Amino acid sequence: MHEHMSSKRLEIYLPEPLFKKTMDGDHLFYCTVKAAFTRIGFQVDVLQSTAANMIASLQSDAYILYHRKSPSTANALEARPSYFGPFWAIDKTAAHRDKRVYLEKFDPTTVPLDRAKGFFSNWSKKLVGTPPNYTETGFVLVAMQGQILRRRSWQSMPPIQMLEQLINAETKRRILIKLHPGETYSNLAIDQIQSMTDDRVELVEGDITAMIGACDYTVSMNSAVSFKGLLHRKPGVLFGDMDCHHIFQNISANRNTIDCVDQVLASSTPFDQYVYWFLYRHMINARRDWAGELILSHCANLGWDLGGYKPSEFRPS
Questions:
Q1: CA dist 302 to 90, 91, 182, 273, 281, Å?
Q2: pLDDT band at 1; cut points 50, 70, 90
């Protein structure tokens, strides 16, 4: 329990347009948060995450929920959408390697296969369907993110070095490089990538869903493309910290690129069990009837005193 907390007060800080949608009752997740805490007697205030409000939040004696911002005080948590669909995460940090699910051990034998197969089939149909045809198959898909010339704290190396190591390690397949459509790349960055291209290594445009469906495996620092690949039953190699690292070949785990590339297709990957374990057991599906109860449970498990209220014993199995 945080002794300096004012009892039963929650402040939710949201950017536009989430703030307006929540105030209008149109944002499923944050309206569910508000309703769940109101139901157990909390005063809930929804505030815009302006610079002034964010500074003021550091002195608040309420519990704080930020949207996609790593908390810096003991009374605060962060909420963010997971990789797709209605799934959300609540945690004490935005840093992947410190998240609760990152630190959990995945054991496929604890996951009922029949239930996992049904869950996987349902969501792969909703989110993947039949991928559009791509012009080729049997390649490696590299999903690039931003700032490719420098190494950030959660990366094992600069992204440009990731490309270099992959090209040296993967000698059997073509390597297709896809830039992030939401990032801006300097001329120097583009020139460095172009200098690595040849008949086997190509910088491409195109439908990312089609590319995921046609590739042999994915490579990224920690792109959502890697997780989406799991729904296409595509294994992958990660060069950075990612909360869903458990079934990927991971260079950050002090393993070299050649070993990871050699192993990525060498053994069967429990896609069904893992997607079920990660999304159903560890994320919050805002569309389910029990989403409010899960939100309260996650917050209680992360140290919030809910004023004597005990979340129900329901836990995803």
A1: 9, 7, 32, 25, 16
A2: very low
Domain extent, residue 126, equals 108-276
Both tokens of 160, joined, read 């440009």
CA 282 – CA 188 distance, rounded (Å): 40
127 and 78 in a single domain? The answer is: no
Residue (of 152, 195, 154, 198) closest to 176 by Cα position: 198
In a domain, 310, yes or no: no
197 CB-near residues (< 8 Å, 6+ apart): 177, 203
For residue 66, is it within any domain? yes
Q: Is the peptide bond before 71 cis (omega within 30 degrees of 0)?
A: no
pLDDT > 80? residue 149 = yes
pLDDT at 16 over 80: yes
58/154 same-domain check: no
pLDDT of 285 > 50? The answer is yes
Please indicate, yes or no, whether residues 124 and 247 belong to a single structural domain of this protein.
yes
pLDDT at position 3 is 43
Are 139 and 189 contained in the same domain? yes
**Which CATH number is 66's domain given?**
3.40.50
What is the mean pLDDT of the segment spanning 41-52?
97
Per the listing, tokens 């836990």 go with: 315
Q: What is the pLDDT of residue 95?
A: 86
